[in-house]
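Weekly modeling sync, notes
Attendees: AB, CL, MP (scribe)

Item 1: holo prediction request
CL wants a bound-state model with magnesium ion before deciding which constructs to order. AB pointed out that an apo prediction alone won't tell us much about the pocket. Agreed to run with the ligand included and paste results into these notes for async review.

Input as submitted:
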Amino acid sequence: MSDTVERIECFLVDAPREELYLGRLLPGETIDERGYFVRKANRTIYPVTDRSLIVKLTTNEGRIGWGETYGLVAPAATAALIYDAISPVALGRDPFDNGIIWEDAYDLMRVRGYNGGHYLDAIAAIDIALWDLCGKIAGLPLHKLLGGQRHERIPAYVSGLAAPAQDDRMALARSWVEKGFKAIKLHIPQTPDAIIQEVAALRDAVGPDIGIMLDLHWMFTGPEAVSLLDQLAPYALSFVEAPCKTEDVSGLAWVADHSRIPVAAGEEWRTVWDAKSRLDARACSIVQPEMGHTGITQFMRIARLAEAHHARVAPHATIGCGIFMAASLQASATLLSLPYHEYQPTIFHRNAGLIEGVVECDGGSYTLPTGAGLGVQPSAKLWDYATAL
Ligand code: MG
């Protein structure tokens, strides 16, 4: 008898952080009564805790698949979309129909304009859980179902230097290099002058052979970004990420056309169509799909389209409890065009206690989870932070 999806459950994981995401509050930034703060530079809202939404699919055969998406803001909205709109599409279906289920769920809301945001996050969570089930049914790790394992380990770049003082950040950078990491990304939203000063300090700290990347958090117009990047030319950046607002595709293309520094984008995309408009415009040469937004189905469609455009795929990694991270590593293991995967130490190591499954990042690369499907599942500790939605 084949497995079909019999039950769908959503949980919010809300885990405390010792330090705010992206570091301490800057002047003018405050925490509101609901536990949110807004970064002035990129005007983006963040919660003070690490929040994530996980889904549990149970089949008629008693097999369990795990999925995860963003739960940073209004996670109950994502759960409501899963229960109200997507569950009827997924219940009773064969998990191996995951591509069709993704398309059927997407079609429900297309003409209403819900082709991003919470709705696509909700589909992503279900999609990851369906693929996890497929691996468990087949008795194979996920990468085997996605085309095969090209990489034994996944090269990683260090994302962010979490220390308030520049001297401490540079000491941290040197310690990562000593541990075997070959690339570091700066991502503290700040003024152009402060960015130049920080990049110069980092190049001085790590020497000429370490890659330096810069996340500009969608802060600039195309010409502004090019002007800044011209001033950063002496420091040989490996890529600049998100220099322009996500809606400003022509601005991004301007940067790609007028700067010698490769442009990376994509952490906020949900679908292959988000990627297509940028790749068609040659607005970026590195795409950064975020598994928590795309799910496995769209992650792979984005990666294949990028490869068809001779672009690189450097997956994004952010706040989650480790389930979509495992999915991202499994998918990344299949990619020919992978230079590295993002690694955010302050999130990754906290997650080590929230999931079961051997995943490590040391010596400059990740190990892959082992076992069938994603190779990870929630630990007993995760349930200390979880509530049913
Ligand atoms: Mg970013």
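Recorded for review: Residues 187, 215, 241-242, 267 surround magnesium ion (CB under 6 Å).
Action items: CL to compare against the apo run; MP to circulate these notes.
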